[in-house]
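Per-record layout

source: Streptomyces lacrimifluminis
name: Phosphoribosylformylglycinamidine cyclo-ligase
length: 359
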Amino acid sequence: MSATNSASGASYAAAGVDIEAGDRAVELMKEWVKKTQRPEVLGGLGGFAGLFDASALKRFERPLLASATDGVGTKVDIARQLGVYDTIGHDLVAMVMDDIVVCGAEPLFMTDYICVGKVHPERVAAIVKGIAEGCVLAGCALVGGETAEHPGLLGPDDFDVAGAGTGVVEADRLLGADRIRTGDAVIAMAASGLHSNGYSLVRHVLLNQGGLALDAHIEEFGHTLGEELLVPTKIYSLDCLALMRTTDVHAYSHVTGGGLAANLARVIPDTLHAIVDRSTWTLAPVFDLVGKTGAVERLELEKTLNMGVGMIAIVPEDSADAALTTLADRGVDAWVAGEITDRGDYTTGAELIGDYATN
């Protein structure tokens, strides 16, 4: 006997896609998206494309558009397990817009992509709320996005997020390796926590090997493990732009996947070398916990996690004090962590030396 459709026939809903739930999610997220609007944004949420008035770029002599795209990685699984959905959007904005600001670009607008196994309108709206709040912190508009329901591919509670952003920088203010000079100061800006990289290692070490529960209270943290793992990624975009207005910044480096040394090396010219002294800061407890629980060697930790530094600024040595003052005035914990030297016999663009400070 051959299989046949039911009397009512097959439908999208029967296949697991709930269009009405998707429509409700859009209605719930509208109020949050509205909070991100910039005067250059035209139209509202719900169109096929987001519109941004490019005539605003006439104030630039030679505007260069900067773009980036990223996700949050397996940190989303921590959010799923804890049922906390309104912080993961901060992570997404940080991963995209803090990449864009590295070249000196002002963030303009962003779009997001949320993929779910089943649309829970309030859950999707909470994710977008976090993205919108992150956009406000980055100074950019959220001009649109997509929520895709993938039943059968993802479980009912599974989800992932990704985003793409655009910024603009005046051509003669473009930051990068060509501006860096011997003697420049390497200024570290403190991370808020693990940020959004290395969670495959963190989850494996703490949850699988260590058998720790997300609701376990960790004395060193002063809160639960889950709360620590969901601390949102610091968004540095407006801080970096402010620093450029007061200081002769030569380059930035966003410390993400690959760790501090590898990301810093990406902006160092072939003839120069960056030395970062570990003794200039103390590791936050979460990094010690990961290292000790999994017996992870220091070099492995350092090429996976940010080790407490989320953004690096490279400035002339005589501008370091002014840079630290600007950052302090904005509430950013920062310090001189190293310097730029000639490459000499060094085979890499950056290295960490010494031992981390202890309390």
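summary: Confidence is low (pLDDT under 50) at residues 1-6. The longest helix spans residues 121-138.
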